[in-house]
Specification:
alpha+beta, Fe-transptr_FeoA-like
């Protein structure tokens, strides 16, 4: 069984991996707020457990065994977030820290029952895919709202970089998953967008916000 610290490393590697499945150790250090010597030491430890492929001065990658273990940690986190929102009435901005604690419970049966209770959801409250008990995920094709063009009609389907402050900002704007949006205009200077949200009065959103909203065509 992996320690809580090891699980946090695995989850970070899972989320930071690029299209080749690689993570720069310096990026990992910055993401976790942990000094490089400690990160290097942990990579050697995880390598000994055959959870990562690690060589000095080279990017690190999860092995197939490591990917599955990391995905199962992510599964526990995202199922917990879904339960807190769907069954307990928490706001999507309130659930991350609670799920961070519950994800380390070592009881597959508990999370399998949670999954069943929720009706086997494929996505969490922020639109991120929930791995199944084999570590596999259903992935959808998204694009950033910032990549859309004037006149595009889309549905807001996921949020990235989901800080509490950002989610509260979206709450204040009445923005939620499943909301239909139409791009009315795009400001050439800074790429801010005027967007009609759910047929309401058009709202201006900055490029920073649009970069963090993922959408699908209607």
């Amino acid at each position: 069984m992996n320690s809580l610290v090891e699980e946090n490393y695995l989850k970070a590697l899972f989320s930071l991996a690029n299209s080749n499945g690689e993570v720069n150790v310096i990026d990992l250090s910055k993401h976790l707020g942990i000094k490089m010597p400690s990160v290097t030491s942990m990579m050697k430890k995880l390598s000994a457990k055959e959870l990562v492929a690690y060589e000095s001065y080279k990017p690190v990658r999860l092995t197939e065994k490591g990917k599955k273990e990391a995905a199962l940690i992510v599964r526990k986190h995202r199922l917990t977030e879904m339960y807190l929102v769907e069954k307990m009435g928490f706001g999507w901005e309130e659930v991350h820290d609670i799920a961070e604690q519950i994800e380390h419970i070592n009881s597959p049966l508990f999370f399998d029952k949670l999954d069943k209770l929720l009706g086997y959801p494929n996505y969490d409250p922020h639109g991120s895919p929930i791995p199944d008990k084999d570590g596999k995920m259903v992935l959808r094709e998204y694009r950033k709202l910032s990549d859309c063009k004037k006149g595009d009609k889309v549905k807001i389907s996921a949020v990235i970089n989901t800080t509490e402050e950002f989610l509260k900002f979206l709450n204040g704007k009445g923005i939620y998953l499943g909301l239909e949006a139409e791009i009315e205009s795009i400001e050439p200077f800074d790429n801010s967008m005027v967007i009609s949200l759910g047929g309401k009065t058009p709202e201006m959103l900055s490029n920073v916000v649009c970069e963090r909203l993922l959408v699908e065509g209607k």
